[in-house]
Amino acid sequence: MAALKKSGKMTSRRTVAKRQSPPVSLRYKKTIQQLQNKIKELNVWKHRLSMILEFGQKSSAITDLDDLLILFVDEAKTVLNADRATVFLVDRKEKVLWSKVAIGTEPIRIPIDKGIAGSVVSMGRLLNIKEVYEDPRFNPEIDKKTGYRTRSILAAPLRNSKKEVIGVFQVLNRKGSASFDSQDEEVLTLLAEQASGVVENAQLYLEIKKIAYETIIRLAGAAEYKDHDTKTHLWRVAQYSGILAETMGFPKEWIENIKMAAPMHDIGKIGVPDHIINKPGKLDPSEWDEMKKHSQYGSEILKGSDIELMQMSASIALHHHERWDGKGYPNGIVGEKIPIEARIVSLADVFDALTTQRSYKPAFSIEESATIIHSESGKQFDPKVVDAFSKSFSKFVAIREQFKKANDHPGQPAQPIFVVK
Ligand code: C2E
Ligand code: SIN
Ligand code: SIN
Ligand code: FE
């Protein structure tokens, strides 16, 4: 029907046109002009599409959420010719929209129901505001803080596969023309769809990692449930190990793995009798023999997996009491024969044992503990790992302080300050 109507209209228009036809040359000129305009428009689209495809290719090679968001913001600015772009993520618990990547400004946190972005969340649809200062929904607070002058905003919702709004993709101040047009709306809608998938994937991935990490900590903690402080001990050892690995320049994924594997280093203590683990004083030789078996037990529990993380954790469990000078246990292996992940966790574990109280020893101060670590360079510890410890000492102190605070309030469960990034 619609098609018929259209063609009907066109015929009548053509008839009208024929009756008072302008000179041929002028007619051609007009048509050529129109075609040229179309070609120009198509070229703009072609350019935009090729840019979008190019970004799509780039984004499939990135798995880190922050890096992806930065890429999308760049893409939006380029393709939409915008002066600024921001991806806000919805935090329903805190009732805020937050952004790490507001290029050109500091990170932003705004109330979830405020401003243009907040309206996009509550209405769940795109908004194209040509003059924001004439729109009562606009929240001028951010402009006030940054000194930036926002004129136009185009903002589209990000949705997860359940169609819930999980973020807002916003571009500010179109360059070269007054405001964003309907073509820009289509492009931003497309970009928002791309970004939605990526953000949702990354969030699910993070969630799975968090669950895995919680499970590891809880299971590893269960092995040593007798020690009340075990859970925070395991968290700290994970953090310390991650800091050392990072300082030594290991790749991101390896750092993630060692942080996950480190908490399992003492899981073999589950095989050691309670009365030995909890003994307030020095162990006698036969008790010490029993205690030393925890490395072997741990590796028995963890070995044989084809998951890289598990292989690493088995290696750490077996070797975390080896010494650089070969006087450690269970195998007395020397130097670089000891897997690097075990050399790292060894220092992290001992630093934490030193700085906290044990059933058999009081806590040393952070400074005393650092002195002991340094004095063991080339003896108990790999000098390169001790170097990394010195370089990153302030970070160790920060982690220690964070957990001290958590321990000051025994009534409250310690916060999982550890954030999987
Ligand atoms: P842990 O308490 O987690 O201690 C881990 C490691 O930290 C120790 O491994 C040791 O290398 C280092 N460490 C702990 N306290 C000190 C200290 O006061 N000075 C120095 N220089 N290093 C310290 P190690 O020796 O192989 O012990 C393994 C585990 O055996 C300990 O884990 C702990 O559970 C148990 N253990 C060791 N000695 C005793 C003890 O005398 N009494 C009791 N009840 N348990 C002990
Ligand atoms: C708003 O959403 O109203 C303000 C956002 C901004 O200026 O970035
Ligand atoms: C142990 O007693 O063997 C562990 C603590 C220490 O080395 O002083
Ligand atoms: Fe151990």
Sheet with the most strands, sense and barrel status? 6 strands, antiparallel
Q: For the residues shown, what is the average pLDDT?
A: 85
**Quaternary organisation:** single chain
> How would the global form be characterised?
elongated
Let me know the number of strands. 6
Q: Give the spatial strand order of the biggest sheet.
A: 3-2-1-6-5-4
CATH class of the largest domain: Mainly Alpha
CATH architecture of the largest domain: Orthogonal Bundle
CATH fold category name of the largest domain: Hypothetical protein af1432
Provide the low-confidence segments as ranges.
1-12, 407-421
Number of DSSP helical runs: 16
- The arrangement of helices and strands along the chain is HHHEEEHEHEEHHHHHHHHHHH
**Structural class category:** alpha+beta
Fourth-level CATH superfamily of the largest domain: Hypothetical protein af1432
Ligands in the model, by name, code or SMILES, are: ligand C2E, succinic acid, fe (iii) ion
Supply the number of structural domains: 2
Strand content: 5-15%
Q: Give the end-to-end Cα distance, rounded to a whole number of Å.
A: 56 Å
User: How big is the Rg?
Assistant: 31 Å
> How much helix is in the residues?
55-70%
Overview in brief:
With 421 residues, the chain is of the alpha+beta class. The chain has helices at 2-19, 24-60, 65-80, 115-123, 141-146, 182-223, 230-247, 252-261, 274-277, 285-292, 294-302, 308-319, 340-355, 366-375, 383-391, 393-408; strands at residues 82-91, 96-99, 108-111, 127-129, 153-159, 165-174.
